[in-house]
Amino acid sequence: MQNYFQITNPPYFTVDFEYFRIPYEKWELMLTRLRQMGLSTVIIVVPWAFHENEGGTIDLQGVTNNRRNLVGLVKLCHQLDFSCILKVGPYHQNYGLLNQGLPTWLSEDSLPQAVKGWYTAISQPLIALQWPEGPILALHFSSAATDQELSLPVSEHLAQVRWPIWLRKRYGGVDKMNGILGTNYGTVSQADFPTHWSESPTLLEQDAKLFLAEQLRDKQAHDYQILLEAGWQVPILGQTKAENEPLRLQNYTEPADLDHGDINPVIFNLQQPIQIDPDPVEVGRYPVWATAAPIRADGSLRRKFWAFKHKLWPYQIPDMEIKDSLLSLHFEGGQAFSASQDISLKMSLPKGSSPTIYRLRSSGELIIDAGLKVQRGKVTGQYVVEDEIDQTDWGFSIDDPNGPLPDFPKTYLSQLLNSQFQTLMKCGGLIESLSEILSPKSVISQPEVHSGNISSSHTLNEARRGLREADAALRKAIRSIGGLEAGFDSILGRPTPEIPQPAKGTIVINPEVFDGNIKDTLYDIGKVCAMSAVELKTASDTVQQTLTEAQTLTIERYQKSYTRAVTAASHCQHNLHQVIAQLRTEIATEKLPLVIWRVHDQIQSISKRLRWGVLRK
Q: What is the pLDDT of residue 515?
């Protein structure tokens, strides 16, 4: 079967999406920003250390941290019509990662077998999502610790074990080796591996370079075979030298980089598109990552964003043209236009055309642009890239504002709505699940059962007393640094499974195990969650109906669906913020135990996701 790259034509443009740095609640927003810039294929860098930070346990579903939900991210890409390439390591250069993304608990000697476990574990849940059924177009792996193939220093195992074996195989014995190299070793093992490369390499150094090159090729071939045996059928890149690969990655960071060279035989990949501030301590070496990125950490856009947009969109749609800093596309029934800076616009219109001019804000809001007028066959006025409210994505000139939208605005606006729909639907599902957990209906009443002399009610009372004592101990520990430090005991010598096992789920809060006042508070929160779930479900149904009938999408339907989504998200946010305030107050004053902080975090995460994914600001 042919792969994606065999049935499509270059150029190919991708962009790094470093999900492990980006708050989970911002994933939809940042993917939307990348699409607005003109990109629809992401390279997902997968740091091994982030998912298996403890040997033997791996989290790819977001059980221990939402940012670890790699499987969910790949599915989200599919839902938002993004394709992706996975960079599975084990090494990741030039990403500012601790230990190049390699687990710090690994020793060099155990690395080969551990890599097999990592590749196997990561492949199991993702195989079904490879192209053509899923969005994964290719894999990329890196078997070398640095960009330089022949790097120094080398591991102790290579230098002291494999190097002497290689020399014996090459020369047969020490006498022949001495004769060729002009050395006087008593045994082959006395030929220490070089500690540096001379400007004029000795014969032994030339042998050492040849040895390293062969070791790297063997390692690449071994890693490549592991991925094949795991079931991958998409292209696997990185197994040979870049110049010999029919398809290779070429990174760029500036718009001007796209002006030079042949773009056809490579995948052009934009690095550092999103600023991260702060960079999470468990993955990055730097407090702030990608300080000059076109997309800021809050999702707002730098001027560099429009520079990239004007370079990239003409590759997406060849009919787009750039003239006098204005990117424009003519289509039947109107045109789209975007400026990279504030300009005084004088744009010609087809003869007899009297369109309505709209401004599409980066949030997705579509309004009539009061600053642009139609006069004497031209669109004139001030095009504003950014005002005090928002930034401008596109301007639209639409001949028939009441009829079905032409192809480009119809497709583009549908994609923006779909992103909001996915957020509404998922937040609605999350808050509905939480409401069910915090509802009396989730408790199945049973008659009191006696086992010996201990009744179930007695056991429940014991559990409540245990919770109170545990909460008191935890609060005392928080007040004492020594108490906290005592809780972090290192367990040494644990065996590491050949294939890492999935991480286990976290505790689910059950109101029934708490005393009356605490239980009633949780039930009340459950009611708020239930009402919010209904409102989000209603809004997502409205947007979904619009998407289902996208072929007849009109300006009015888009505006109504967008407004419905934003109104529902804003109202639910308001209600959830009141719950968050209540939880913070009552936990701080010890009316609620600290374990309820988990409910707080779940609600706050949903609120953040609504903000970034629907309101987009």
A: 81
